[in-house]
Recover the amino acids of this structure.
């Protein structure tokens, strides 16, 4: 069979996995706002508060262009059923995953299930479609492990992961490369750098800190606060995801049609400055519990985003001085804090 990938198909339906998740929800909202038809998949697993996932879904469900399927992306029969029910799917955005570095130390099989088996099942779904235009998927800055050369560049070696989460995300990149090579599927992987913002994840720093500060409880600050992160605001991430989606790699018949990008804010911030903005936005001081570095964690992340800037014009616009207050406004509203 001659591969039909990337030969002038116009987009019909976008499949977004992890649609009830933080980044998936915002991505669906943006796609729907520009009139796309979106099929969202999520298994609503209880890794964090399911009520938050359901509330995100209820917002998406208000748009007639959105259809939701409650299913596991590693369930091959369920994914085949989605393909049969929605034959117009041309674009895939695979964001469903078991996220979180620390949880991968205690629940490793959640990671192989969703991030390896699930990712492969989605690649297979795209492979057996005759109209896949582009397969975009989430990777992570954690693939850089303990690399010390900063900023992290997609040209750097990433074969020394220091958490199983990172290893599974790197595996997703490698599997995608092989499918682009073998089946000429245009794939693009995005290495996200610490995403935060409204509707954010309860297991991530911004949320954990805000919750503890409100409760008057100590906030756990690792490596005695000597950490830097390339914090990326959710709206900038979504602009990058959709900018990339609109620019599938072109198959020149030689190289596999696959891209890999860093997607960060291009500015590494001191963790203590980030916390200071949370305190300021909440109008309360934190009680600090300084702790040593956690296993699997890295001291600093910084994204070299020149490749995605060059190829799709990605330009993050939200500094933490704007993004953190926006997150806290949502956090207060969500928790009825006035
Ligand atoms: N948020 C960040 O800072 C960050 C950083 C790096 C990478 N990422 C990656 O970005 C993607 C989205 O992350 P997020 O922050 O929105 O996380 P999230 O946990 O909020 O969203 C993931 C969603 O996927 C769903 N899911 C998990 N396993 C599934 C499965 N097997 N089948 C169906 N649904 C499943 C979950 O229920 C959840 O709603 C993930 O791949 C994550 O690894 C996120």
């Amino acid at each position: 069979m001659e591969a039909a990938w990337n030969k002038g198909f116009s987009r019909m339906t976008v499949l977004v996995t992890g649609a009830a998740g933080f980044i998936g929800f915002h991505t669906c909202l943006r796609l729907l706002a520009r009139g796309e038809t979106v099929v969202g998949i999520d298994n609503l697993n209880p890794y964090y508060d399911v009520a938050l996932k359901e509330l995100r879904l209820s917002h998406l469900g208000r748009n007639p262009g959105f259809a939701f399927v409650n299913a596991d992306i590693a369930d091959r029969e369920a994914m085949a059923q989605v393909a049969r029910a929605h034959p117009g799917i041309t674009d895939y955005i695979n964001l469903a995953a078991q996220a979180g570095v620390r949880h991968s130390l205690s629940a490793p099989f959640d990671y192989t299930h969703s991030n390896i088996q699930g990712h492969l099942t989605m690649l297979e779904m795209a492979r057996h479609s005759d109209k896949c235009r582009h397969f975009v998927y989430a990777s992570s800055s954690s693939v850089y492990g303990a690399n010390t050369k900063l900023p992290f560049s997609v040209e750097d070696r990433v074969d020394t992961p220091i958490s199983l989460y990172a290893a599974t995300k790197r595996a997703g990149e490698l599997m995608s490369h092989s499918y682009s090579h073998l089946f000429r599927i245009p794939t693009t992987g995005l290495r996200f750098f610490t995403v935060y913002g409204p509707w954010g994840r309860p297991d991530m720093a911004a949320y954990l800190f805000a919750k503890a500060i409100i409760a008057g409880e100590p906030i756990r600050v690792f490596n005695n606060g000597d950490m830097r992160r390339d914090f990326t605001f959710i709206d900038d991430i979504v602009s990058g995801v959709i900018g990339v989606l609109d620019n599938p790699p072109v198959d020149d018949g030689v190289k596999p049609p696959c891209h890999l990008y860093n997607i960060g804010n291009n500015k590494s911030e001191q963790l203590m400055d980030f916390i200071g903005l949370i305190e300021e936005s909440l109008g309360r001081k934190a009680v600090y519990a300084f702790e040593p570095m956690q296993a699997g964690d890295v001291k600093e992340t910084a994204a070299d985003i020149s490749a995605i800037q060059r190829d799709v014009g990605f330009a993050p616009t939200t500094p933490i001085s704007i993004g953190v207050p926006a997150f806290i406004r949502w956090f207060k509203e969500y928790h009825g804090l006035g």
Q: What stands out?
A: Residues 17-18, 20-24, 41-45, 53, 72-74, 95-99, 114, 118, 138, 140, 192, 194-195, 201 surround nicotinamide-adenine-dinucleotide (CB under 6 Å). The radius of gyration is 19 Å.
